[in-house]
Design goal:
By secondary structure, the chain is of the alpha+beta class. It has a single domain, classed as YaeB-like fold (2-Layer Sandwich), CATH 3.30.2310. Helix content is 43%, strand content 25%. The chain is globular, with a radius of gyration of 14 Å.
Length: 99
């Protein structure tokens, strides 16, 4: 069954994904990276099928927050029948930068 919604990646989200994948390549095997990509794809499919499934972000009430793993969170915005992936946040990488 198709969705009425369409997913759009913002430039910021694309850059975030590239940064996350670069970071993972230094720490994970290719198989684990492929598994991450599959989980990400399934999560995006869930968002597309049921955009209100995930809670509103306390950080910004305009956004919803879909936790992909304890390391990665997807922030997205619903506008009509469009879903904008706004930001992919790598919690682990952010912690490493603070140290």
């Amino acid at each position: 069954m198709g969705s009425e919604f369409k997913i759009f990646w913002t430039d910021e989200a694309i850059n975030n994904l590239e940064d996350i994948l670069d970071y993972l390549r230094t720490r994970w095997a290719n198989r684990e990276i492929e598994n991450f990509k599959k989980r990400l794809s399934k999560q995006i499919d869930l968002i597309e099928q049921n955009p209100k499934l995930f809670p509103i972000s306390q950080f910004n009430p305009r956004l919803r927050k879909a936790v992909l793993s304890k390391q990665t969170t997807i922030f997205y915005e619903i506008s009509g029948y469009s879903i904008y992936l706004v930001y992919l946040f790598n919690n682990k990488q952010a912690i490493m930068r603070v140290r």
